[in-house]
Write a structure and sequence with these properties.
Radius of gyration of chain B: 25 Å
CATH architecture of the largest domain in chain B: 3-Layer(aba) Sandwich
Strand order of the largest sheet of chain B: 6-7-8-3-9-10
Distance between the termini of chain A: 20 Å
Number of helices of chain B: 20
Distance between the termini of chain B: 28 Å
Number of domains of chain A: 1
Mean pLDDT of chain B: 87
CATH class of chain A: Mainly Alpha
Oligomer: heterodimer
CATH superfamily of the largest domain in chain B: P-loop containing nucleotide triphosphate hydrolases
Structural class of chain A: mainly alpha
Low-confidence stretches of chain A: none
Strand content of chain A: under 5%
Number of strands of chain B: 20
Low-confidence stretches of chain B: none
Chain lengths: 282, 507
């Protein structure tokens, strides 16, 4: 059973903004995938670069150079991969936890739902960024920590939404029919609840990726990222750290910022288009 | 007063009403009968130009000689309610929940600047004056419907259009509302255009009757004559769907001796918090027997059925199936569920909209881990439910099927495990009249062919007369009377049963 049927794809294509967003995402994805192939380590090694520092955009360096003479364009391409990877995996983690908590609390109810909802409320009222900062300070530095910090702090809204949808589905007579046929919890969840929840979850994932990328940039900008990896947020951190503003090096500050805006906007547009397609009319 | 000439209504390219001519004089009552989708509501709403913008209306709609179609907006607003008004279907949705009903009745009076008092209007519909301060949720269904009637009469119109005014009401309440409507029409010399799918309701209130099918009026005349000698086959089908209690021709079940018991309910009690929904019920269904459980909504009959199915835990008492007590859970309960199957009221919501017919029917087999011969079993069940050939239907999604076909899929899903007892909750209540007869016949045939026993829960005494062997009458959580159909429906002994039987509209 396909989640988005053929007419669904056609309807998706009729959302122009969504298609534009998808095009941006494909471009960013291709860039991120190809970057390691055409960028050798030397060109980004501070000790081996030959170009002068703080050069403006030109024929040699499309987006100029940074404080150490590295090409900002190449840094951008290299950083795309990290930003997208962290964004995607953190979003999948958050939506995964959210779906699990939402379905379980919606289906079983009673004390289990009570306990799960209190935990959800706890995470909902804590400022996510502060919690993420605390987590990434405590845990060892690394990409995994960033993913964990973002994933663990952004699942409550998904959980709430999935729970609401689960409750709505469970109230439908066909679930009662399934129970009367002898279907147990696994059957009701697997055959009726999950298939109805999955489209919403997909939409939610695309929207969650957008906020995860912003969260990753924020953490990296604050210097809490993985120091061995280049990401767009880390570029902004470096630019700020090495005085791009007094150098008037706009080419070092603007591109990572605009790239984040573009990708986040693209994910949001795709998410909205998907939402319009999968939301049942009835 | 009202004259429709060659009225045709299109939605896009779809023709919903085709070339209808109708006249209605003051004091005349006209019933408009038809199934869902026959165009009867569209026809009625066109009189006050209440159709959506997408509708294209051709022909003439003359209200007191003026064509509604070409009226200026201001004139139309003046005509609405002051000349003709509407009693809408479903009073619970047509009243604003956050305003007092008195204010809502007064709204048209205020807008039109006419004289009239809310207290008088409430008095006319036999509601006490202090109900004006009530909010809709504080009133019962029948009271809300009477508020709707009072609202329709607020500006002293000469024509009242009533669109399914009693559809969601119980028989007893329905009889009261119809009586109020009838009295008002007679007293105030109103014209009444009443729309219903239920011929017996129209027979009760209207002198003339028009029957619609697929946008056309197929038959019209004096109500008594049309119902007594229907000339069009569709009218005949509609008449047959509303069985006359006491008429042997409408009794489809053949008499049979009382069989040994299959399901026994002993002194069952079910509480919701402090409310006792089921209060000490004893009930027996024999092998291959059809028992009708009748009662008003809120009488506890649905709770009783859910408890028998093991979907609710009883507070006390026993449910015995085939000699052994139905367990409260676990594998043993699952085993019982192979034998007892549920058919729900509204087939469109009883089927998962994402599942194809094959999956919906096979669901029971998969639940019970019967993977072998899945396809053969499903095909057999679908054909038993008279969807032939099965291959035409197996790949269909529920929304591609008609209501009757959907109910057959639900029944096929229940049959696939080879059950011995079917618990059917209002199995035909949401179906059209012509389909209703087919489903009733199917249930009877399944009994004959498979020896399938049924417990049919219904508020419809006609259905009980048609197919049941025995009837149990439930009132406020208790079974007040039970016995053979003839005994209970023809010579009722309990006051409540008598009230129920008396309230049934007579054709």
């Amino acid at each position: 059973m396909s989640v988005v049927s053929r007419p669904g794809v056609a309807r998706l294509l009729s959302h122009r903004a969504g298609v534009a967003g998808a095009a941006v995402l494909v471009a960013a994805g291709v860039l991120a995938a190809l970057a390691p192939l055409f960028i050798s380590d030397e060109t980004l090694d501070v000790t081996r670069v030959t170009a002068a520092a703080w050069q403006g955009p030109g024929a040699d360096h499309w987006l100029g150079t940074d404080h150490a003479g590295r090409s900002v364009a190449l840094l951008m391409a290299q950083g795309a991969g990290t930003s997208l990877l962290v964004g995607l995996s953190a979003a999948v983690l958050a939506v995964g936890i959210g779906t699990l908590v939402g379905v379980l609390s919606g289906h079983f109810g009673g004390w289990l739902a009570g306990a799960l909802l209190r935990v959800t409320d706890f995470f909902l009222v804590l400022p996510a960024l502060v919690l993420a900062i605390a987590l990434s300070t405590v845990l060892p530095r690394g990409l995994g920590t960033i993913v964990l910090a973002i994933g663990l702090t952004s699942w409550p809204s998904t959980a709430r939404m999935v729970r609401a949808q689960t409750l709505a589905i469970e109230a439908r007579p066909f679930v009662e029919r399934a129970r009367a046929l002898g279907g147990g919890h696994a059957h009701v969840i697997g055959r009726h609840v999950l298939p109805s929840v999955v489209p919403l979850v997909l939409v939610n994932t695309t929207l969650a990726v957008a906020s995860a990328i912003v969260a990753e940039s924020t953490l990296a900008f604050l210097g809490l990222g993985d120091p061995t990896r280049i990401s767009w947020g880390a570029l902004l951190h470096q630019a700020q750290l090495h005085g791009a503003v007094p150098q008037r090096a706009w080419w070092y500050l603007l591109p990572p910022g605009l790239a984040i805006v573009a990708v986040v906007l693209a994910f949001t547009l795709v998410g909205r288009a998907l939402e319009a397609v999968v939301t049942p009319k009835r | 007063m009202l004259e429709l000439k060659n009225l045709t209504v299109h939605y896009g390219h779809k023709r919903v009403v085709h070339d209808v001519d109708l006249t209605l004089a003051p004091g005349q009552t006209l019933g408009l009968a038809g199934e869902s989708g026959s165009g009867k509501s569209t026809l009625a709403m066109s009189v006050l130009r209440l159709l959506p913008k997408t509708a294209r209306v051709d022909g003439e709609i003359l209200l007191d000689g003026e064509d509604v179609r070409t009226m200026a907006w201001g004139r139309l607003r003046a005509v609405r309610w002051a000349s003709a008004s509407v009693v809408f279907q479903g009073a619970m949705h047509s009243l604003n929940p956050v305003h007092r009903v008195g204010d809502q009745i007064a709204e048209p009076i205020r807008l039109h600047g006419t004289t009239g008092s809310v207290a008088d209007l409430l008095d006319q519909v036999e509601l006490p004056g202090d109900k004006a301060r009530a909010y809709p949720h504080e009133l019962s269904g029948g009271q809300k419907q009477r508020v709707m009637i009072a609202m329709a009469l607020a500006c002293g119109p000469r024509l009242v259009i009533a669109d399914e005014p009693t559809t969601a009401l119980d028989v007893v309440v329905q009889a009261q509302v119809l009586a109020v409507l009838q009295r008002l029409v007679a007293e105030q010399d109103l014209g009444l255009l009443m729309i219903s799918h239920d011929l017996s309701v129209l027979a009760e209130t209207c002198d003339d009757l028009a029957v619609m099918q697929a946008g056309e009026i197929v038959e019209r005349g004096r109500t008594r004559e049309v119902i007594a000698n229907p000339r069009h086959p569709h009218t005949a089908a509609l008449t047959a769907a509303f069985p006359v209690i006491g008429d042997p021709a409408h009794r489809w079940a053949d008499p049979r001796p009382t069989p040994p018991p299959l399901l026994q309910v002993r002194d069952l009690r079910v509480n919701y918090g402090r409310t006792r929904a089921v209060d000490g019920v004893d009930l027996t269904v024999g092998h291959g027997e059809i028992v009708a459980l009748v009662g008003q909504s809120g009488s506890g009959k649905t709770t009783l059925a859910r408890t028998i199915m093991g979907l609710r835990t009883p507070s006390s008492g026993r449910v015995i199936f085939d000699g052994s007590e139905v367990p409260r859970g676990g594998r043993a309960l699952k085993a019982v569920r192979r034998q007892v199957q549920l058919v729900l009221q509204d087939p469109s919501s009883a089927l998962n909209p994402r599942h194809r017919v094959f999956d919906a029917v096979a669901e029971a087999l998969r639940v019970h881990g019967l993977r072998e011969d899945e396809e053969a079993l499903v095909t057999a069940a679908v054909e038993r439910a008279e969807l032939r050939p099965a291959s035409l239907y197996l790949d269909a999604l529920p929304h591609e099927l008609s209501g009757g076909q959907q109910q057959r899929v639900v029944i096929a899903g229940a049959l696939v495990l080879g059950p011995r007892l079917l618990v059917a909750d209002e199995p035909v209540a949401s179906l059209d009249a012509s389909v209703r007869g087919e489903i009733v016949a199917l249930l009877l045939r399944l009994r004959t062919e498979l020896g399938l026993a049924s417990l049919i829960i219904t508020h419809d005494l006609g259905l009980a007369w048609q197919i049941a062997d025995r009837v149990a009458v439930m009132h406020q959580g208790k079974i007040v009377e039970q016995g053979s159909v003839e005994e209970v429906l023809l010579t009722p002994s309990h006051d409540y049963t008598r009230a129920l039987v008396r309230a049934v509209p007579r054709v």
